[in-house]
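Hello K.,

You asked for the raw outputs rather than the summary table, so here they are, unedited. I folded two proteins back to back in the same session to keep the settings identical. This is the first:
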Amino acid sequence: MSDLLRCGRIKDPFYRDNEKEALQMASYDYEYKRNLRRQRGKVRDHSKARFL
C-alpha cells in the first residue's frame, strides 16, 4: 500500500473515505520488475542479487 501511495496510484487511505479506494486496490495482485545491469569486470559470473 505504501508503494501505491508513494507513486500516486491511491490517495492517503487515512483521510476521510479514501480507505474504500485503498481496499479496492489491495484486492489486486502486483508484481515488481527491475532490470539489473552489470558492469564488465566489476561483477563475477556467479554473483547473487539480494533484495531487501
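The second followed immediately with the same parameters:
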Amino acid sequence: MKGPTMSPLGKYYVGAAIVSVLALFVLPLPSILAWLITIVALGAPVAAYFMLDESQRARLRRARRRGIGR
C-alpha cells in the first residue's frame, strides 16, 4: 500500500520554511541579513508566479488541480 505523497509545490514550501528557520535561529547572522534571506526564500516563488502572464497562470492552476487526488 502506497502512503501519501507530497506535491512538488509543497516540497518548495517546506524547503523555504527550513531555510527561513535556519537563517533566523541557527546561523549566527546579523538580524537584517537573516530577515533578508527569509524574505527572499519566501518571496521568490510568489514573485515568479506574478511574473507569469494570465494564460500561463491558468495553465499552472489546471495542472495543479489535475495533480490533486492522483
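The chain is about 75% helix and 0% strand.

Happy to rerun anything if the numbers look odd on your end.

Regards,
P.
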